[in-house]
Prior knowledge:
- This protein is mainly alpha-helical.
- The chain is about 70% helix and about 0% strand.
- It contains eight helices and no strands.
- The longest helix is centred in the N-terminal third of the chain and has 36 residues, at about 30-65.
- The radius of gyration is 24 Å and the shape is extended.
- It starts with a helix and ends with a helix.
Amino acid sequence: GVAFASTGYLSSGSAVLPKNIVFESAGRVFSAEIYSIFMILCPGLALATSINGLFLILTASVEFVIEDGIFPKFLNRNFGFFRSKPILSTAFYAVSALALFGDWNLETLASYSTLGWLLLFLPLLFVFIRLERRVPRDFDPRFPLPRRFLRFAAYAGIVFILGFAFFLLADLFEQGRIVLLPFFLVSGAVYFLLKKGRGVGAGVGFISGEKMDAFIKSNLSEKNG
């Protein structure tokens, strides 16, 4: 109701609201020509940004899967001066076209893709905090900001990720799209088992404090040596 209340076409206390408040306000404020442009460009921009986000996320994710040997290597083949990947790009374009003409819910795909990346960065921040605590205090990380800021940034990132993930899950639940969450979690577990079964990252697991100390000492000795 903010759009109507701000333009004066509907009182703020009215309980009768149309389904598309912004479009209804634009139809009353703008001329027919500007309204037509508004109706075409705004959804197009939203669709383009959603597809662009999916391309950025899915490209990196699929490249990791290809490097792990689960998908065939030829999909990631480079061609040309700019190291383009036409096979992988064409596959993404085909899936995107299928999504557009098949009336897929791109918002749902974008939400789950974003949720996946948030869950990916969360353990990285926890590992960073553990590493930072074990690095000697006299070690200079050659970073222009103090280590206190690095710790704050890591904790702030964890709070942001958890908060953003909560809002994404709440939105998915409200729209009745939370039913895909078990499939989302199971697919991640299946990928991990496939990766471990192929011997890629078989040692991935909980990193003990002794291993962290050995890793830090080896890196410090290389820098000081």
